[in-house]
Structure formats: structure tokens, C-alpha cells
Design goal:
The protein contains 4 helices and 15 strands. It is α+β, with helices and mostly antiparallel strands. The strands form 5 sheets. Strands 1, 2, 4 and 5 form a 4-stranded antiparallel beta sheet that branches. A 3-stranded antiparallel beta sheet has the order 3-12-11, with no helix packed on it. 48% of the residues are buried. Bound molecules: 2-amino-4-trifluoromethylsulfanyl-butyric acid and cobalt (II) ion (CO).
């Protein structure tokens, strides 16, 4: 899983290099498939419950599960690229909100707060803590910054399958929920909105977007719980 995570991290770094106004998310999706194939890996999302692409690409007010499209990205867009990499049966999952050129001040602050909230959540991923400790840390910080935490989608356990128990909500109450134990691997993936946390789903049955049309961002890592503390398998070094 760690090897899959390192490859996924390097793939996000490559995306950051090629993303610019004019590129389409279908082109990014094709780049990812080729990059993974070149490194002996496969995109686990493709075909998962009928999902048709290697990546999810969620632009601006899209929260998650956006379909890659042939619309050129524009200067100032933010786009969350989410993927699960399978390398020799080891899985890793990481979403990252990438920026297209210069973005607005509010978008900058949204990205900063969302990323910071991910790392605050990760700090709580310790043996003996509970799932609620993670969500509580994220929610408290995000709401103090005036943003909202998406409720309808959560992090999850990951192992032989992309989605395993437990659910990892990005909101919650301290000392509540399943106990975290050494050896568990989970994703922490806060989706943070400028306005309401409520979402609506597109006619394609997948894409979630903010109910008020305001911006949404997401940063996700796959994290192993060890006696030496959280080990981030998808860190971009
Ligand atoms: N990578 C997503 C997650 O973090 C899963 C996408 S579901 C898919 O849970 F069906 F689109 F693949
Ligand atoms: Co993901």
C-alpha cells in the first residue's frame, strides 16, 4: 500500500506540473491512466460500481465524483483530482485540489483551510483514539474559519478493497465511534465548502455539487495507524 501511495503522490505532483488553462479533465484522466500503466499500476476506480473513468475530476462547485469532461479548464478554476491506485494488489487513495493559474482570495483561503483540516484530522489518527476524534478536530477548525464540512461523503477504511469499514466522517464528537487500532489503514478526505454543506447530485447519478453553487475543495490522504503515530502513505515529498 505504501508503494501504491508513493506512486499516487508522484502522479499528483505530475498533474500539478501539467495543469494549466486550456487543458481538459479528460486529458488529465488519460495522462493518469498512462502514468499508472507506465509504472505497472492500474486505476482502481475504473469500473467500480460502473464508474467509467480512472479519476474523479470535480471543478469549482463540484464536491466529488465529477466526471472528466472535454471542457477546457479556465484560469482561476480549482479542480479536485481523486484516484485510487492499485499496485500489485496494494491500494492507496488520494484526492488533491489543483489550481489553474491565479485563483481568487476566497479560493486560496478555502484551499489553505481544507488542507490544514486534513492534517489536523491526521494528527488524531492514533491507536486508542476514536473515529469521532478525527471528525471533531476537522469540523471545529473548519467551522471556526467560517466554512462548512460536507456530511454526505466520508473517509473510509481501505485494504483489500477500496471501501472498507469504518466510515470516517469529517464531523463528529470527541471520544465517540469505533476505536482506532494499530495496523488499521483509513482515508481522511475532508470536503470543505465556502457556503452550505448541503449538496445535490447531477443527472449522471454520480457528481455531487454544492446546493448553493459556491466553491468546494478536498484534500485526501491514505493513513496507516501505527504505534509511532500516523503514517501518511500518500504524502507528496
Ligand atoms: N476515491 C474516492 C474515495 O475517496 C472513491 C471514488 S468512488 C468511484 O472514496 F466510484 F468514483 F470510484
Ligand atoms: Co479518493
Amino acid at each position: 500500500m505504501h508503494e501504491a501511495g508513493k506512486l499516487l503522490a508522484s502522479c499528483h505532483k505530475e498533474i500539478a506540473k501539467i495543469i494549466k488553462a486550456g487543458i481538459t479533465t479528460l486529458e488529465i484522466d488519460a495522462f493518469v491512466e498512462e502514468y499508472l500503466a507506465k509504472h505497472g499500476a492500474t486505476p482502481e476506480q475504473k469500473g467500480y460500481k460502473g464508474y467509467p473513468y480512472a479519476t474523479c475530476a470535480s471543478v469549482n462547485d463540484e464536491i466529488c465524483h465529477g466526471f472528466p469532461t472535454d471542457n477546457p479548464l479556465k484560469e482561476g478554476d480549482i479542480v479536485t483530482i481523486d484516484m485510487v491506485v492499485n499496485l500489485n494488489g496494494g491500494l492507496a487513495d488520494s484526492a488533491w485540489t489543483h489550481v489553474v493559474g491565479n485563483i481568487s482570495e476566497i479560493a486560496k483561503r478555502l484551499l489553505k483551510v481544507t488542507k490544514e483540516s486534513l492534517y489536523l484530522g491526521i494528527k488524531q489518527a492514533l491507536p486508542g483514539n476514536r473515529i469521532g476524534d478525527i471528525g471533531h478536530a476537522i469540523q471545529t477548525y473548519v467551522e471556526a474559519e467560517g466554512f462548512s464540512v460536507v456530511r454526505d461523503f466520508t473517509g473510509h477504511g481501505i485494504g483489500h478493497n477500496m471501501h472498507e469499514d469504518p466510515h470516517v466522517p469529517h464531523y463528529g464528537v470527541k471520544d465517540r465511534g469505533p476505536r482506532l487500532d494499530e495496523g488499521m489503514v483509513i482515508t481522511i478526505e475532508p470536503m470543505v465548502n465556502v457556503g452550505t454543506w448541503r449538496c445535490k447530485i447531477d443527472a449522471n447519478g454520480w457528481t455531487a455539487r454544492t446546493a448553493d453553487g459556491k466553491l468546494s475543495a478536498q484534500f485526501e490522504h491514505t493513513v496507516a495507524i501505527t504505534k509511532n503515530g500516523p503514517l501518511i502513505l500518500t504524502e507528496q515529498l
